[in-house]
Amino acid sequence: MKTILVTGATSGFGKAIATTFASNGWNCIITGRRKERLQELTETLTRTYDVKVLALCFDVQNREDVIEQLQALPEEWQQIDVLVNNAGLALGRDSFDNASLDDWDIMIDTNVKGLLYVSKAIVPYMIERKAGHIINIGSIAGKEVYPNGNVYCATKHAVDAISKAQRIDLLPHRIKVTAIHPGAADTEFSVVRFKGNQEQADNVYTGYQQLVAQDIAAITYYCATLPPHVCINDLVVTPTAQANSLTLHKE
Ligand code: NDP
Ligand code: 8X3
């Protein structure tokens, strides 16, 4: 039986990824800050599928907590076949001069440093087995910069660069590294970005068929289940109505 660790499994892509892998018989380590949601998902997955689930509650920004909890994994959970670094967020959509330093700190600490802490804690288990697959969730914001995207785009460009670096440095250890870069997808992403303003969030997703979390889960599963000698390195996926960050065709 294989094991996946998904960060940010309490919502959106992460929840759909955990559910898809569980439905295919994978044991799941799920993480996030919202404990009740982790408990709910644990109950749903174990009740619905014949799999084991380990829920770990931590903020990926908290270096000590991340390292402590992941280095102390029970032995039966140390064989992690796939790590999906998914936890992340955008905060605000303000011009460089108007944006908040606090928002910038949180995005950098979560999207960049959090991904590094989790990877650093899990990679030794993979090196020990000479096998493993890291799948980083980037964004089309990591391929192009758009107006008022400044630091969110910078963090996702960092995810792009870190994925390339991991692929090079972890090559001798036979660890695959895949970066998946989605375009607009209807999750809690925009409600978080606009700090609870539902109207502003809904406006992002009107007038076209956006991606849904299940699309990203299916792609992640496909990437994770290719033969051992095949690795998708970099994958950009947008709604058909979206050509790039700046070009969206709304009806
Ligand atoms: P959601 O807001 O639905 O999910 C985000 C997940 O990340 C939640 O489970 C949340 O869990 C977790 N998370 C956020 N901050 C932290 C933290 N500090 N510590 C631990 N977990 C955290 O958004 P999405 O599913 O859309 O986002 C998932 C990833 O996809 C993000 O990296 C995002 O940047 C990226 N992305 C999203 C796109 C979109 O259009 N939706 C497009 C391209 C990329 P909790 O709050 O419980 O901690
Ligand atoms: C999320 C997609 O275009 O809002 O990363 O940055 S976008």
Automatic annotation (TrEMBL):
Record-linked SUPFAM superfamilies: NAD(P)-binding Rossmann-fold domains (SSF51735)
Regions crossing the membrane: none
Gene3D superfamilies: NAD(P)-binding Rossmann-like Domain
Keywords: Oxidoreductase
Pfam families with a match to the protein in the record: adh_short (PF00106)
UniProt signal peptide: none
Gene Ontology molecular function: oxidoreductase activity, acting on the CH-OH group of donors, NAD or NADP as acceptor
Keyword Ubl conjugation annotated: no
Family classification: Belongs to the short-chain dehydrogenases/reductases (SDR) family.
PANTHER family with a match to the protein in the record: ALCOHOL DEHYDROGENASE
Protein's UniProt name: SDR family NAD(P)-dependent oxidoreductase
